[in-house]
């Protein structure tokens, strides 16, 4: 495919080899303007904002991924395959499933269970287990300890459904020890595996499925500083 793609107006060289990907493009704008030096906007197509700047002398990009695995699948695939990106760190929100995981807590996703058929395209003779890059995960755990930020490390659920009609679904995943639910991680991990690249999801708990607690949209956009500090620190 030629550059730019139908979804990204950047040219080769406009995007760093390391990319942070929040779901919300406005969060990408906030991160770029708050944390990066001399950020330059490389994409406004479909308002999926992307920026490249430096952090402590290292070039880094931040770009929105949208909501759901189809959207994450498109943007992360193009970054890996067309823009020579080596690492993508998803920084997003999630809904807690376990009692010991609270609103504003940070979760590092070792693996991503899913109810999606995203892996069907690979024609595998079994069930694929999407997992994080261990090197990135290890760095994130160490950086969290260095910053004295407590984190939960474990399995998450990447679901195609935000509004699920099945009342038994959340309790079932909870019974398997899954920490939280979100909508993009599994597609990112599968794209990275297929491309031979690296990926990690760092998630901040924005709501609790069983305690009925939640952050506002504005709080979700601007209050996830601990997650951002871990991601930028690695």
UniProtKB/TrEMBL annotation:
A purine D-ribonucleoside binds at residues 7, 182-184, 206-207. The keyword Endoplasmic reticulum does not apply. It is an enzyme of class 2 (transferase). Its EC number is 2.4.2.1. The active site is at residue 207. It catalyses: a purine D-ribonucleoside + phosphate = a purine nucleobase + alpha-D-ribose 1-phosphate; a purine 2'-deoxy-D-ribonucleoside + phosphate = a purine nucleobase + 2-deoxy-alpha-D-ribose 1-phosphate; uridine + phosphate = alpha-D-ribose 1-phosphate + uracil. The keyword Glycosyltransferase applies. Belongs to the PNP/UDP phosphorylase family. This is Purine nucleoside phosphorylase DeoD-type. The lineage of its organism: Bacteria, Bacillati, Bacillota, Clostridia, Lachnospirales.
